[in-house]
Protein backbone atom coordinates (compact mmCIF):
# COMPACT_ATOMS: atom_id res chain seq x y z
CA UNK A 1 0.00 0.00 0.00
CA UNK A 2 1.27 3.44 -0.90
CA UNK A 3 1.34 5.81 2.08
CA UNK A 4 0.31 9.39 1.46
CA UNK A 5 0.22 12.19 4.05
CA UNK A 6 -3.00 14.19 3.74
CA UNK A 7 -3.73 17.08 6.10
CA UNK A 8 -6.23 19.39 4.37
CA UNK A 9 -9.85 18.57 5.34
CA UNK A 10 -11.16 18.48 1.76
CA UNK A 11 -8.33 16.21 0.65
CA UNK A 12 -8.79 13.92 3.67
CA UNK A 13 -12.47 13.49 2.78
CA UNK A 14 -11.65 12.82 -0.87
CA UNK A 15 -8.96 10.27 0.01
CA UNK A 16 -11.14 8.43 2.53
CA UNK A 17 -13.91 8.12 -0.06
CA UNK A 18 -11.38 6.79 -2.61
CA UNK A 19 -10.04 4.25 -0.13
CA UNK A 20 -13.56 3.07 0.76
CA UNK A 21 -14.35 2.57 -2.92
CA UNK A 22 -11.13 0.68 -3.64
CA UNK A 23 -10.74 -1.56 -0.59
CA UNK A 24 -11.92 -5.13 -0.17
CA UNK A 25 -12.30 -4.77 3.62
CA UNK A 26 -11.72 -2.03 6.14
CA UNK A 27 -11.38 -1.50 9.88
CA UNK A 28 -12.10 1.89 11.35
CA UNK A 29 -11.39 3.37 14.80
CA UNK A 30 -12.53 6.85 15.76
CA UNK A 31 -12.77 8.81 19.00
CA UNK A 32 -16.12 10.21 17.88
CA UNK A 33 -18.36 10.26 14.83
CA UNK A 34 -20.76 12.84 13.48
CA UNK A 35 -22.99 12.50 10.48
CA UNK A 36 -21.15 13.33 7.24
CA UNK A 37 -20.57 12.00 3.73
CA UNK A 38 -17.64 9.77 4.71
CA UNK A 39 -19.36 7.90 7.56
CA UNK A 40 -22.50 7.58 5.45
CA UNK A 41 -20.46 5.95 2.67
CA UNK A 42 -18.58 3.74 5.16
CA UNK A 43 -21.85 2.47 6.62
CA UNK A 44 -23.36 1.94 3.18
CA UNK A 45 -20.43 -0.38 2.44
CA UNK A 46 -20.91 -2.36 5.66
CA UNK A 47 -20.30 -5.59 3.74
CA UNK A 48 -16.62 -4.52 3.55
CA UNK A 49 -16.42 -3.64 7.25
CA UNK A 50 -14.24 -5.95 9.35
CA UNK A 51 -14.37 -3.78 12.49
CA UNK A 52 -15.82 -0.44 13.53
CA UNK A 53 -14.91 0.98 16.94
CA UNK A 54 -16.32 4.34 18.04
CA UNK A 55 -15.42 5.79 21.41
CA UNK A 56 -18.31 7.39 23.20
CA UNK A 57 -18.55 9.69 26.18
CA UNK A 58 -22.27 10.37 26.50
CA UNK A 59 -22.74 13.71 24.73
CA UNK A 60 -19.72 13.61 22.36
CA UNK A 61 -20.83 11.16 19.66
CA UNK A 62 -23.88 11.99 17.56
CA UNK A 63 -26.63 9.39 17.90
Task: Produce a short descriptive summary.
With 63 residues, the protein is of the alpha+beta class.
The average pLDDT value, as a whole number, equals 87
Which regions contain 5 or more consecutive residues with pLDDT less than 50?
none
Share in β-strands: 15-25%
Sheet/helix structural class: alpha+beta
The helix fraction, in percent, is 25-40%
What's the number of domains?
A: 1
The end-to-end distance, rounded to whole angstroms, is 33 Å
Give me the number of helical elements: 2
- The ordered H/E elements are HEHE
Across the major sheet, the strand order is: 1-2
Sheet having the most strands: 2 strands, parallel
Form type: globular
Q: How many distinct beta strands?
A: 2
Write down the Rg: 12 Å
Describe the structure.
It is a single chain. 35% of the residues lie in helices and 17% in strands. The chain is of the alpha+beta class. The protein has a two-stranded parallel ribbon with strand order 1-2. Helix 1 runs parallel beside helix 2. The protein starts with 8 loop residues before the first helix and ends in a 9-residue tail after the last strand.
Keyword list:
alpha+beta; 63 residues
Show the helix and strand layout.
Elements: H1 9-22, E1 26-30, H2 37-44, E2 49-54
Parallel strand pairs: 1-2
Helix pairs in contact: 1-2
Amino acid sequence: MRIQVVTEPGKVKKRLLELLADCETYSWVSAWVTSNEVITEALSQHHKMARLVIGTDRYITSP
